[in-house]
Amino acid sequence: MQTTPFTPDEQQRIVDAIRQAEKATSGEIRVHVEPHCASADPVQRAIEVFDRLGMHQTKDRNGVLFYLAHTDRKFAILGDSGIDAKVPANFWETTKDLLRSHFAAGQYVEGLSRGIERAGQQLKQYFPYASDDTNELTDDISFE
């Protein structure tokens, strides 16, 4: 059974943020939500989820995963090698800070939406949309 801290409307807002962010890029953004982090380190768990979701299979290695273990209050942002090599050195950390500030105020949907928008801007800059692009990964939130 899937558990989610989000109402159907909130889930739709997150999916809409993903679709908006992906409009101008060949990059792919996913959000994965689960109650508990199966690893002591949320980054390690995000790596496992990234692999399981097949995010490393994008043509340009430009997938970005937002991982959230809501009950444990842990999260991570993981970019594949293609996008990680292009963004500024502190990009992931400053994006985590943005999410953390919203999460601390209980604004999970707003935090995720802002982080997704920020990742989309970087993806657009380094991996602009081309006419032959296809949506390689679903935009739906994955739950465990």
How would you briefly describe this protein structure?
This protein has one domain: Diaminopimelate Epimerase, Chain A, domain 1 (Roll), CATH 3.10.310. 44% of the residues lie in helices and 15% in strands. It has helices at 8-22, 42-52, 81-84, 91-104, 108-126, and strands at residues 28-34, 63-69, 74-79, 142-143.
Task: Outline the biggest β-sheet.
Answer: 4 strands, mixed
Number of helices: 5
Distance between the termini: 8 Å
**What share of the residues lie within helices?**
40-55%
CATH architecture: Roll
Category from helices, strands and their pairing: alpha/beta
CATH class: Alpha Beta
How many extended strands?
Answer: 4
InterPro entries: TPM_dom
Domain TPM: 6-121
Pfam family, one: TPM_phosphatase
Protein name: TLP18.3, Psb32 and MOLO-1 founding protein of phosphatase
Compile the SSE list and pairings.
Layout: H1 8-22, E1 28-34, H2 42-52, E2 63-69, E3 74-79, H3 81-84, H4 91-104, H5 108-126, E4 142-143
Parallel strand pairs: 1-2, 1-4
Antiparallel strand pairs: 2-3
Helix pairs in contact: 1-5, 4-5
Protein name: TLP18.3, Psb32 and MOLO-1 founding protein of phosphatase
Pfam family, one: TPM_phosphatase
InterPro entries: TPM_dom
